[in-house]
Every structure is written in structure tokens, then in C-alpha cells.
Specification:
By secondary structure, this protein is α/β, with parallel strands linked by helices. It has a single domain, classed as NAD(P)-binding Rossmann-like Domain (Rossmann fold, 3-Layer(aba) Sandwich). 38% of the residues lie in helices and 15% in strands. The chain is built from ten helices and 13 strands. A four-stranded parallel sheet has the order 3-4-5-10, sandwiched between helices. The protein has a three-stranded mixed sheet with strand order 11-8-13. Helix 1 packs across helix 7 and helix 6 crosses helix 10. The longest helix is centred in the N-terminal third of the chain and has 22 residues. It is globular. The two termini are 25 Å apart.
Length: 324
């Protein structure tokens, strides 16, 4: 697994271990945390931009599959540094895919994104067949990788699952892992920290969108449910490649997230309106019917308050994240 020390990756590690798998993690620790890995997990600090180092680790084993999480992932930052996003996201994935083909790896699960669907004209909820029209270099870089995987299958037989997931949130219900981005950019932990008095008033980017309350609407999926979807997708790609959208199918607005944090924490959330953030669509909600039908996946932590509750428990128990 690449990026196994990151937010989603660390929870996927737990899901794989819980299912009885052995896991080897590659991570450059630029944004991930070594402390996020349970004891005993084999770890290699590798920058996937280093083609030889990447190939060297892949060549060490007879892998049942590879899960690729490592990437730059901030929409706003990609609008400022587009070439950096194209270079790192595309080249690191290409190095990994080449190494998998050379080693004869048969299956690869790719952490893609709902940011592929950035165009103004699309159905809601969004199916896999929706028009691909990324609204940011981040989304575009992920689409480029999906195309590489298409041809890696067509020419070399590398089966892949491209998982276009929406907004990962929450924390391991057992408290084994959580969200620790530096700087933090995700709405739920930012809102929790504002409620706990650990940061200034929350900035709400955009209050004039064409939504029910003027703020952006997103489909929040619990990170444990997301990890489960990766395992199920891995089982689907023995003889074919798949593409799945992953979300709860329910959208919650930014203002509704604030209300949920206030309900769960019992504290007021200080916030102030700010301008729209470039590259942000008004609404993104997933149609996950294909994933549910083909794998039997269903979210266990679908309610927004439950997602917030697990995130709050993690933030309260780890005020300094993995630094504690």
C-alpha cells in the first residue's frame, strides 16, 4: 500500500489487518504519520518519484494486490500550483504502475476522486457514467491516472479498481486511528477544533451557492466504510477492471455540518462567512448503486452525527494528533 500513513490509507491498513491480510506500506511521510501504523506493519519510507526505489520495493514480493493512496490532494492548492500536482500525482502513479506491470502484479486499487465531476451540467446523485469534467488540476491529475490504468489493463492485463470517493470523514470507531492533516483543511475536524476553542472562528467558503441554505453540499462517507469498500473492490478485480463511485448518497451542507458538531459536542461553533473557493462545485453527492449491487457494500456509519461523533472522540483523545 502506498500512502498507508495518511488518513484514508491508515484506516485501510486497519481494515486489511482485521481481515487477516499482511500489509507492506510505502510512504514518504510528507503528509502521513509513521505513528498511524500499528506495530508490526512492514514500512518503507519511499518517495514514489524515485522510480528505482519504487520498483525495488515492488520487486521484493509476490503481491496479491496493490492499493495506491499516495497523492497531493488539496483542490485549492492545485489551483495555485497546477504543474506541481500534475507532476507528482501523475509521475508517482506512473512509476508505481510500471513497477506493477514489470513484476506481474495482477490487481491495483486506485484512490480516485469525485473531483472528476466538476462541470456545471451533471445529474444528482452522480453515477459513474456522468461526464468527466474536472474543475481543478487535482481532479484532472486523477483522471489522467485512470486513463493510464485503462491502458495498463488493455495492454498488460493489470486489473484495477478506480474508486471515486467523495468526502472521507470520521475516525476509527475503536480509536486506533484518526485525521491529522498539517495544516488541516477538511471541514469536520476544522469545525470540531473551532467548537473546542483550538482555532479561531471557522471560515465558511461561500454562502451564496444555489443550495438549500447557500452553502456547499457534500457527501460525507465514514473513513471506516471507505476502507471496507477498498477491500470489497479488491475482490472484484480478479478478471476485470471496475470503476465505482463511493458515498452515502446523502448530501449535507456546510451549515448542516456546523449544526451537527454543535449537537454532538454541546458547544457553539464560531464561524464567519468568506468568499467562494475557486474550484469548488456547489454540490457533490454520489450514486453508489453499482458498488452496492456488485459487492454488497453498505455504509455502517451513514449518519452525519455518528461520523462527527467518531471524529470528535479522536480529536479529544489526541489533541496533538499523532504528535501525542
Amino acid at each position: 500500500m502506498t500512502g498507508g500513513c495518511g488518513f484514508v490509507g491508515s484506516h485501510a491498513v486497519l481494515a486489511l489487518l482485521d481481515a487477516g491480510h499482511e500489509v507492506v506500506v510505502l510512504d514518504d511521510l510528507s503528509t502521513g504519520h509513521r505513528e498511524a501504523l500499528p506495530p508490526g506493519v512492514e514500512f518503507h519510507q519511499v518517495d514514489l518519484m524515485d522510480r528505482d526505489a519504487t520498483a525495488g520495493v515492488v520487486a521484493r514480493g509476490a503481491w496479491d494486490g496493490v492499493l495506491h493512496f499516495a497523492a497531493l490532494s488539496l483542490v485549492g492548492e492545485s489551483m495555485v500550483e497546477p504543474l506541481r500536482y500534475f507532476r507528482r500525482n501523475y509521475m508517482t502513479a506512473l512509476n508505481l504502475i510500471e513497477a506493477c506491470v514489470a513484476r506481474g502484479v495482477g490487481r491495483l486499487v486506485f484512490s480516485s476522486t469525485a473531483a472528476l465531476f466538476g462541470g456545471p451540467e451533471r445529474s444528482e446523485p452522480i453515477p459513474e457514467t456522468a461526464l468527466i469534467q474536472p474543475g481543478s488540476p487535482y481532479g484532472e491529475s486523477k483522471h489522467m491516472i485512470e486513463r493510464v490504468l485503462h491502458w495498463a489493463d488493455a495492454v498488460h492485463g493489470l486489473r484495477s479498481a478506480c474508486l471515486r470517493y467523495f468526502n472521507a470523514a470520521g475516525a476509527d470507531p475503536g480509536g486506533r486511528a484518526g485525521e491529522d492533516h498539517r495544516p488541516e483543511t477538511h471541514l469536520i475536524p476544522l469545525t470540531i477544533d473551532a467548537a473546542l476553542g483550538r482555532r479561531p472562528a471557522l471560515k465558511l467558503f461561500g454562502t451564496d451557492y444555489p443550495t438549500r441554505d447557500g452553502s456547499c453540499i457534500r457527501d460525507y462517507i465514514h473513513v471506516t466504510d471507505l476502507a471496507d469498500a477498498h477491500l470489497r473492490a479488491l475482490d472484484q478485480i480478479h478478471d476485470r477492471s471496475v470503476v465505482y463511485n463511493i458515498g452515502n448518497g446523502e448530501g449535507y451542507s456546510n451549515l448542516e455540518v456546523i449544526s451537527a458538531v454543535e449537537r454532538v459536542s454541546g458547544r457553539k461553533v464560531p464561524w464567519e462567512a468568506a468568499g467562494r473557493r475557486q474550484g469548488d462545485p456547489a454540490k457533490l453527492v454520489a450514486d453508489s448503486a453499482t458498488l452496492r449491487r456488485e459487492t454488497g457494500w453498505t455504509p455502517r456509519f451513514a449518519e452525519l452525527d455518528r461520523i462527527v461523533e467518531t471524529a470528535l472522540l479522536w480529536r479529544e483523545a489526541h489533541p496533538d494528533g499523532y504528535g501525542r
